Amino acid sequence: MKKIWLLRRRYTEAGGAERFTQRLATMLCQRGREVWIAAEQWPESSDGVYRTERIQSNGPAAYSRQCARQVVSRGDGLIFSLERTSRQHVFRAGDGLHVCWLERRKRYQSGLARLWAAWNRRHRAVLELERQVFTSGATNRVIANSSMVKNEILERFAFPEDRIQVIHPGVDLNVFAPCADANHRHEIRRRLGVPHDAVAWCFVGSGFERKGLLWAIRIAARMKENVWLIALGKGNRARYARLAERIGFHSRLRFVPEGASSLDVYHASDAFILPTIYDPCSNATLEAAACGLPVITTRANGAAEWVQGIVLEDPSRTGECAERCVECARALDLSRFDETLRSRLDETPCWEAILQVIADAAIQR
Fold it and tell me: Does some domain include residue 199?
């Protein structure tokens, strides 16, 4: 089958799923496929890699309905969806399960916030879409980006296990590598206002609540050593700056301007911390590990199964977490870096596996 539809509702420049969609479109085009992206808004392709189908909708449920009318009803191509939609041949669960995110977040919410979430119309609509996706009649194959997500699907939905494949995302090892130039590292720190001899942790992730910036600040502040925190991502920075000021950590917190190079942030740091509440498989975690940084994250991060690091059970227990993280409160020692681990993070097998899933699905259609 020559024509491939890629479904992604909206484009945001910093979005991991959006970058994935663009890369996949390019690879499919190189293999002679006719690629269409169906979205509410998406940048036009300047080099003819793909064409766009405008989907007019005002939310996830409306997007799914319009895709059924404008894409599914045509029956003229293989549908690869990165959204919860009513019918697709292949669904990539890159966003994880909404039901699991709500369950995990509930542990850290007030009673009023939990009540609001339970009655929120958007949440209910997404949960209903999720139930539809994981029925055998709606989806032929599912790609999960971690074993954590696959297990969550099996625990909550009666979807056939033999139709779920775990494909680890991987990173570009030509880009993400340890910093071998000490002068470059010192120059980045100088620009950020971080002392060259300080221990610096980095936090990289958009959606500060879900990614756990609150806990990253509290854990770093509890360290007896001189630990600084460099934060990059989108979120309410003022809120977290006020928190840092209240606990006496403000002088050691540095927010990097949005759009700054995440690679520079990794190269300026001694360790990576992402005490996330829920993350199907954090790309930033994999990137940091490929750059040689020790990783601090939680069991709720699907990437934890792929990297060697400190895995926290409950990030809100900051005292216990700080004790677990003592070994990361020291200068980065690249002589301890495991090159074997880095080789496991190569993105090449990921793309080969995804393209094979698409090829198999096209044959079986």
Answer: yes
Q: What residue numbers bound the domain in which 156 lies?
A: 3-169+347-364
pTM score over 0.90: yes
Tell me: do 32 and 160 sit in the same domain.
Answer: yes
Residue 177 maps to a domain: no
340 class by beta-carbon count within 10 Å (0-12 exposed, 13-18 middle, 19+ buried) = exposed
pLDDT in tens, 44-67: 988 889 999 999 998 899 999 999
Tell me, yes or no, whether 54 and 144 share the same domain.
Answer: yes
CA dihedral 95, 113, 208, 21 (to 10 degrees): 20
- What is the structure's pLDDT at 365? 64
Q: Cα dist. 54→51, 86, 107, 284, 353 in Å?
A: 10, 18, 39, 31, 29
> Is residue 176, in this structure, part of any structural domain at all?
no
Domain count, the chain: 2
Together in a domain, 127 and 200: no
Strands (E), 55-117: 78-81, 88-92
Confidence of residue 203 (pLDDT cuts 50, 70, 90): very high
User: Is 174 a domain residue?
Assistant: no
At residue 39, the 3 state secondary structure works out as strand
297, HSE (Cβ side, Cα atoms, 13 Å): 33
SS3 of residue 173 by DSSP: coil
pLDDT digits (tens, 9 = 90+) for 285-341: 999 999 999 999 999 999 999 888 999 999 999 999 999 999 999 999 888 777 777
Look at residue 117 and tell me whether its pLDDT is greater than 70.
Answer: no
Q: Which residues of 78-87 are buried (b: 16+ CB within 10 A; e: fewer)?
A: bbbbbbbbbb
